[in-house]
Design a protein that fits this description.
The complex is a heterodimer.
Chain A lengths: L5 H7 L21 E5 L5 E7 L5 E7 L5 E6 L38 H9 L4 E5 L8 H18 L5 E7 L1 H12 L6 E5 L5 H18 L12 H24 L12 H8 L4 H12 L21 H34 L17 H6 L7 H10 L14 H8 L12 E6 L6 H30 L9 E6 L30 H17 L7 H8 L18
Parallel strand pairs in A: 4-5, 4-6, 6-7, 7-8, 8-9
Antiparallel strand pairs in A: 1-2, 2-3, 3-5
Helix pairs in contact in A: 1-6, 2-14, 3-4, 5-8, 5-9, 6-9, 8-9
Chain B lengths: L1 H24 L13 E8 L12 H14 L7 E8 L4 H14 L4 E3 L4 H10 L2 H4 L3 E4 L15 E3 L4 H15 L5 E6 L2 H13 L5 E5 L6 H13 L4 E5 L2 H13 L5 E4 L6 H6 L4 H4 L3 E4 L10 H13 L7 H19 L6 H11 L23 E7 L5 E3 L6 E3 L8 E2 L15
Parallel strand pairs in B: 1-2, 1-3, 3-4, 4-5, 6-7, 6-8, 8-9
Antiparallel strand pairs in B: 10-11, 11-12, 11-13, 13-14
The chains are: A alpha/beta, B alpha/beta.
């Protein structure tokens, strides 16, 4: 079997990730708002302008405007540019793109424009901005969205309902907008959202530190130089991350470690520990899904590896494919936060990594982890007393600044529809599960209060349900192999990848949110379920996805 | 407005009153997923194909043979029991996918005898039968953790735990092989961890311990085990692994002329499967093995007689081995649980029946079940025997000596329990 050839193809998938779909540079704040300037065309009138923080925005209003506007928030863009020629997956660099988005940038099997048109055809206006600050921008983006809502209502005074929606970081922005300004939005649709800042920081920095510790101690991760020099240092870190993924992938059968491995990695290699087990452990320790677009951990090539491949090899390949999607953004944010808060803004001196491997994962993936003896050896390297694995020691003021960022609470205040692929590498399923569980408690309390009130009034008024969650689950199995037994890289398989949805699925979300806005509540039965199913998604009230490690 | 409010209130009160009356005067209709007036649907996952399947792949046929026998005799409270079988090839992720199918698509009432520690953990974590209220009956794994009623509230183990087995095995070793140099081969996961826990609890010291990662067992890796064991001069070796590991260990050792006294764990000790892997019966001869059920060759045992007869008619030509006996016994216990739950069968009533009456269910085992409201422990003991020249496990001197213990620090004691007579025709009573 030629597993080696898979890697270059798998990594090439990174360029398609929606995480980096929109990239905008930071802009000076507090300029005067400009616009909106409208073209007065029919049947779709387009208006553009900039908000007072200099964020470009775009508004499209159909001639049959029915009073509802959909406010889109796009996903994460790097806050610093990556030059061309430095990263193989991005030969042209990661360009600056300050354009506003009025709908999802990436739509599987369709286009953003077609999706926007389908919404406009319903008489719904669409709008969105490019935001003034890129990267992790919840604080700034909420302000921009608040201003944009005001601009729209002023320009189109027949507005009746505002529905906000967004994916990835835009999902976090949308959630933050609903939490901070429930009076401004009538419903929200949150897609593949980022989790609250501390949980995301832990996920990303833990993963990067594990990569540094096992595979390449020269990764910098913090203390980047100012300006262009720092940009290059961070870009070099991203390049090292790709090299690690490529090396582990290329040697997945032999278990050979990257040449860049430090003393700990080399000692593990000498002890017969395969690098693929270390890669998988990294994923399990941070809560990264270990099924991916190309690897289901079920199928194996015909022949001797039919069973061995899904048990011992596939989980590691899925891990590195998911890391490839998530950690480019992770390093982007590491650099951004380093600049924003100061060096050493992250502290993992008290992290007990051994406890982050769940008892279940230890056993479920035991074969791929090469058994308990190997697992214990891998965890032993992470012992704080290991001088070859120095922890990241935080600087108090920088750590405090990082902790001061706005963090979504998950409290549902307005009708909310949430959707994610269950193997999303962000990983959104964890956060949506937590929001869903919290809301179940909240709703039970509201119901108990209503019953108590009914005992006095003798009239029961049921509380309004305000949350509907749908999951995009992968097929029963999906890994494919060519005639030589080599796994075939796949760019899209439902339920995998980040923010990867079809037009029908996006449309379901915005339609459900609009319906909820009009009703003031979310109906999760009847057409909600049947329409979701037709779009390939399910409502599963018994869903059970593990919380992010930050909450354990 | 005041009048309208009053009118609305009166109407609402009337509706509530009628609803209350309805609730108290009309008997509740039995309505449960997987249960109809004529059928009870059960589902199971296990390796039916692939390298892990030999032996295990006989389980569904054995269970179906017994359920068909029950069905032919009127079923359970008028309902016939059917089982939907899904092949997971012993791959945890596949077990998750297949279990999801059983619960969500096939809409089975309960899972029965899903096999494998890792697979059951994967299902518990991802499918979460507990959250869905789906009973997981008589899991085919001896991992002690599944008896944790807080963590796995709808899961009911039936096999004695690996900790129990190791503790009892340690007692046997002390009684029969005192002073010998001991070796151990075990699986490097929870299966093996349970065994180590039991041996440690019992104070057994091994001169050589060989851990193999699940899936790595082969003739080539077994050669390394033999080198370690023989170098340490082990003259008694415990093979506490799956059948393929047992077969690899025995076969390779024989080829290398290494012949210690073998003690085989129950999981990998099925003679039919070992012999089918190419290990001659002579290599098995005189090895020590353990079981909680009567010997499959015990022609005097009423359960063995009935079950072997049913199986021979249902699956002609297939050997009646320990997997078949165990599977038919689990089916027999399941039928009693379904019967005990009564005609208004629900998932809740089924679990309640096991917890309230399970300890008195009849079974082929030579030890009682330990189910109660606070215990999901199934059997809790073993007898030891030796393999005959034809490779059949039989009690030493033809007499079953049962030992029992717990998965904690409890002592190992001889069991004085006497198995009650089989219910008429071996049907649930």
């Amino acid at each position: 079997m030629k597993i080696t050839s898979v890697k270059s193809r798998a990594i090439a998938l990174l360029s398609t990730t929606a995480l980096l779909a929109t990239i905008v540079v930071a802009s000076p704040a507090q300029a005067a708002a400009v616009g909106p300037t409208c073209d007065a065309k029919t049947p779709i009138q387009t208006c553009v302008g900039t908000t007072s923080d200099d964020a470009a925005y775009e508004i499209r209003v159909p001639s049959n405007f029915n009073g509802t506007v959909a406010l889109w928030s796009h996903g994460l863009g790097v806050s610093w540019p990556v030059s061309a020629g430095l990263l193989p997956p991005f030969p042209n660099g990661i360009p600056v793109d300050p354009r506003a988005n009025v709908a999802p940038f990436t739509v599987i099997g369709s286009t953003s424009s077609a999706l926007a048109s389908s919404i406009l055809a319903d008489g719904v206006a669409v709008m969105g901005s490019g935001f003034s600050v890129q990267g992790w921008n919840l604080d700034e983006a909420v302000k921009t969205n608040v201003e944009l809502i005001g601009i729209f209502k002023k320009a189109f005074p027949t507005t009746k309902k505002v529905v906000a929606w967004g994916y990835s970081a835009g999902g976090g922005i949308t959630q933050a907008l609903a939490e901070q300004h429930p009076e401004l939005v009538d419903a929200v649709a949150i897609i593949d959202p980022v989790a609250p800042a501390p949980a995301m920081q832990k996920l990303l920095m833990d993963a990067l530190w594990l990569f540094k510790t096992y595979f390449d101690p020269s990764m910098k991760l913090t203390g980047y130089s100012a300006g262009k020099a720092g940009d290059l240092e961070a870009t070099a870190d991203i390049g090292k991350m790709y090299s690690i993924l490529a090396s582990v992938g290329a040697n997945v059968s032999s278990g050979k470690w990257p040449a860049t491995a430090g003393p700990s990695g080399k000692a593990l290699e000498a002890a017969g520990v395969p690098s693929r087990s270390a890669m998988l452990l990294c994923a399990l320790l941070v809560g990264m899904p270990v099924q991916s677009a190309s690897y289901d951990n079920i199928n194996g090539p015909d022949g001797a590896l039919k069973l061995t491949f899904p048990l011992a090899v596939s989980p590691a390949l899925a891990s590195l494919e998911n890391f490839g999607v998530a950690l480019t953004s992770g390093l982007s944010m590491a650099r951004e936060w380093d600049t924003k808060f100061g060096p050493n803004w992250y502290d993992n001196t008290k992290t007990n990594f051994a406890t982050q491997l769940s008892e279940s994962d230890r056993d479920i993936y035991n074969a791929a982890l090469s058994g308990n003896t190997v697992i214990d050896a891998l965890l032993g390297v992470l012992n704080p007393a290991n001088p070859a694995a120095p922890r990241m020691v935080g600087e108090a003021s920088a750590v405090a600044k990082a902790a001061g960022m706005y963090s979504t609470t998950g409290k549902i205040t307005v009708p909310t529809i949430m959707m994610t692929g269950t193997n999303d590498p962000v990983p959104a399923a964890s956060w949506i599960q937590q929001v869903s569980d919290k809301y179940a408690v909240q709703f039970a309390a509201e119901k108990a209060a209503a019953i108590a009130a009914a005992k006095k009034s003798r009239s029961y008024v049921a509380p309004k349900n305000k949350l509907g969650v749908v999951w995009l689950k992968p097929p029963k199995n999906w890994t494919k192999f060519d005639a030589t037994g080599t796994p075939i890289a796949q760019s899209y398989v439902a339920g995998n990848g980040h923010a990867a949805f079809t037009q029908k699925q996006f449309k379901f979300m915005i339609d459900a949110a609009i319906k909820a806005a009009n009703a003031g509540s979310v109906s999760t039965t009847g057409t909600f379920v049947s329409t979701a199913r037709k779009a390939g998604m399910v409502r599963d009230k018994f869903s059970s996805y593990p919380y992010l490690k930050y909450y354990n | 407005m005041t009048r309208m409010n009053r009118r609305a209130l009166i109407t609402a009160s009337a509706v509530l009153a009628v609803a209350a009356l309805t609730a108290t005067t009309i008997p509740a209709q039995a309505s449960e997923v997987g249960v109809s007036n004529s059928e009870i649907k059960l589902g199971m996952t296990l390796p039916m194909t692939g390298t892990a399947s030999p032996g295990y792949n006989k389980i569904p046929g054995a269970m179906k043979a017994y359920f068909d026998y029950v069905n032919a005799n009127g079923g359970v409270n008028g309902r016939k029991i059917t089982i939907k079988v899904e092949d997971d090839r012993y791959v945890p992720t596949e077990a998750v996918a297949k279990t999801n199918k059983l619960i969500l698509q096939d809409k089975v009432m309960a899972l029965i005898s899903p096999l494998g520690t890792a697979n059951n953990k994967a299902v518990a974590a991802s499918v979460n039968p507990a959250r869905r209220g789906v009973p997981v009956l008589f899991v085919n794994t001896g991992f002690s953790g599944f008896a944790d009623t807080k963590k796995y509230p709808t899961t009911y183990p039936i096999l004695p735990s690996y900790v129990m087995e190791a503790k009892i095995m340690a007692e046997y070793i002390k009684d029969n092989f005192a002073g010998k140099t001991l070796g151990l081969v075990y699986q490097d996961d929870d299966f093996g961890t349970d065994a180590l826990k039991g041996f440690t609890q019992a104070g057994v010291t091994f001169a050589a311990k060989v851990a193999y990662a699940s899936g790595s067992q082969s003739a080539a890796t077994a050669a390394g085990w033999v080198t370690k064991l023989s170098t340490a001069k082990c003259d008694v070796v415990v093979l506490f692994g799956v059948s393929s590991a047992t077969a690899a260990g025995l076969g390779t050792a024989a080829a290398l002329k290494y012949a210690p006294q073998w003690i085989l764990g129950s999981v990998g000790g099925d003679a039919t499967t070992i012999k089918a892997s190419g290990v001659p019966a002579g290599v098995l001869y005189n090895a020590v093995g353990a079981s909680f059920a009567p010997a499959t060759t015990d022609a005097e045992d009423e359960y063995v007689k009935l079950f072997s007869d049913i199986y021979a008619k249902a699956v002609p030509g297939s050997a009646f081995d320990s997997y078949v006996l165990g599977a038919m016994n689990s089916a027999f216990v399941a039928a009693q649980a379904l019967k005990a739950a009564g005609p208004d069968l629900t998932r809740k009533s089924l679990m309640a029946a096991i917890e309230s009456k399970g300890a008195s269910f009849a079974s082929a085992a030579l030890l009682p079940l330990n189910y109660s409201k606070t215990s999901h422990v199934g059997y809790s003991g073993y007898w030891f025997g030796k393999y005959s020249p034809t490779g059949d496990l039989k009690p030493v001197d033809g007499k079953y000596v049962l030992y029992t213990t717990d998965s904690g620090s409890g002592a190992v004691v001889k069991s004085t329990w006497k198995r009650p007579a089989m219910p008429a025709k071996g049907l649930p009573n």
